[in-house]
Design brief:
Blueprint: H1 24-35, E1 39-40, H2 41-44, H3 50-55, E2 60-63, H4 88-100, E3 104-109, H5 120-133, E4 138-142, H6 150-159, E5 163-165, H7 175-178, H8 184-195, E6 200-207, H9 213-225, E7 230-235, H10 252-264, E8 269-272
Parallel strand pairs: 2-3, 3-4, 4-5, 5-6, 6-7, 7-8
Antiparallel strand pairs: 1-2
Helix pairs in contact: 4-5, 5-6
């Protein structure tokens, strides 16, 4: 991935400033995660909502380790050669969910192109064992594209989580540069297949990479065309100087307008704002 050069580092506007996660509940969650040797995408991806979510008692669990086989231009998660799959990770996750007294769990993973099914079977096992041990807990999964492996996707669908989320992440025009190991059409195909089932389909993307207004509208149309039910739209924030630079910080009013447009295009639930990420306020949609 080639990062554009000679881009001036943009100063963050006031609406992107968030408090550090030092509150009591946040510390408790960090301790629980450390004790159970678990990772969260909140920490690994340097999510701007970590303070708010941890303080509210929610977290998005990152399974299959914390090393990704892909190197996307916007992502802060470490990439390289992952460790072997740890089957005990599921048991530790369930214990942590029980201790944290959660009733809605979001599970995601690094992309594991090194595994034959991309980790789909592991997702299915997480869902099944959570349902068995904690039947009142609802599960949302945020999955990779499984390299377009239809059989792998069917494993996750068959496990029947409440929601299957697959983030498209960026507009089609920037996909080859920012997600060179992904495939825009395969991602849309995955979402189309989920929408054909009883499982709720969900996707999300970020703005601020240099896309045009037409790019954003075209992306919304593409997601609507595959009957994606839920949508999240957030502001890209450059994790480090080595990552793709921010081209624009969208004002909250612009996000409000994008939310309005998304509802007009038929999405059932939309979260749109500068700090929105794929799991932000995930429980709101079921209220």
């Amino acid at each position: 991935m080639s990062v554009p050069l000679n881009k001036e580092h943009m100063r963050k506007p006031a609406w992107l400033k968030v408090p550090p996660p030092y509150a009591r509940h946040s510390h408790s969650i960090r301790t629980t995660l450390a004790d159970h040797q678990l990772h969260t995408v909140c920490q690994e991806a340097a999510c701007p909502n970590i303070a708010e979510c941890f303080e509210s008692g929610t977290a998005t669990f990152l399974v299959l380790g914390n090393i990704c086989t892909r190197d996307c231009g916007y992502c802060h998660v470490a990439h390289g050669i992952p460790l072997p799959v740890d089957r005990q990770e599921i048991t530790r996750l369930i214990d942590a969910v029980r201790k944290m007294k959660l009733n809605y769990v979001v599970i995601t993973s690094v992309t594991r192109d090194d595994l034959p099914d991309g980790g789909a079977g592991f997702f299915a096992d997480c869902i099944a064992q959570l349902r068995k041990e904690l039947p009142r807990v609802e599960t949302e999964v945020l999955i990779p594209d499984f390299q377009g492996n239809a059989a792998a996707l069917e494993k996750v669908i068959a496990a029947k989580p409440a929601v299957i989320n697959h983030n498209i992440e960026v507009t089609r025009s920037l996909f080859p540069q920012l997600r060179p190991q992904g495939d825009y059409q395969k991602s849309l195909g995955l979402l189309r297949r989920v929408a054909e089932t009883s499982v709720i389909s969900k996707s999300g993307f970020m703005v601020g990479f240099g896309e045009t207004s037409e790019d954003i509208l075209r992306l919304m149309d593409d997601l609507a065309s595959v009957s994606c039910a839920r949508l999240t739209i957030g502001q890209y924030q450059q994790p480090s100087r080595k990552h793709w630079p921010v081209a624009k910080y969208y004002h909250p009013d612009e996000f409000a307008r994008l939310k309005e447009i998304a509802y007009q295009k038929g999405f059932q639930h939309v979260e749109s704002g500068p700090l929105v990420r794929s799991s932000y306020h995930a429980t709101r949609a079921r209220q």
